[in-house]
Amino acid sequence: MASKKKIVFQGEAGANSDLACRKAYPGYTPVPCPTFEDAFAAMRNGKADLAMIPVENSVAGRVADIHHLMPHSGLHIVAEWFLPVRHQLMALPGASLKTIHSVESHVMALGQCRKAIRALKLKSVVAADTAGSARIVSESGDHSRAAIASELAAKIYGLKIVKRNIEDEAHNTTRFI
What we know:
The chain is α/β, with parallel strands linked by helices. It has helices at 16-24, 36-44, 64-69, 107-112, 114-119, 130-140, 151-157, and strands at residues 6-10, 29-33, 50-52, 54-57, 61-62, 81-84, 88-91, 102-106, 123-127, 145-149, 160-163, 173-176. It has a five-stranded mixed β-sheet with strand order 9-8-10-7-11. A four-stranded antiparallel β-sheet has the order 5-4-12-6. A three-stranded parallel β-sheet has the order 2-1-3, with helices on both faces. Helix 6 runs parallel beside helix 7. It starts with 5 loop residues before the first strand and ends with a strand.
């Protein structure tokens, strides 16, 4: 039996890039990579068949790292995928909007949820990525902490969604290559 083809993405399981992989290439196995450089290296070294790389978001703008890394990567763009991004505010089971004081996520996600964060009077904490933030909040045991990530991340890390679709703009979409 042949193994499934692999598609790499930057981030942890449950990241929006993971969602894009699952939706655009359902026959492939999504493989998380800590950095964009690691994802590009997996492609160059033949450890992956494809990579799913975000290049810009309709609300927060371009993903600057990619515009610096891609020209020197030796890779080629073969397709693009547009993912509507829905951000969920999540916390440990038992937490509520009354117990939560801070929210952590990737800087792009925090920027896409600015109005909601302000309205909820939460302190923003920049983290490496959305799904990683969900994992960290899950492991923390702290009911005052929340994360902004995908619904998939909430399921993977056993978190409760305390407020759904908190992105500032309904047209919030990320373009991937």
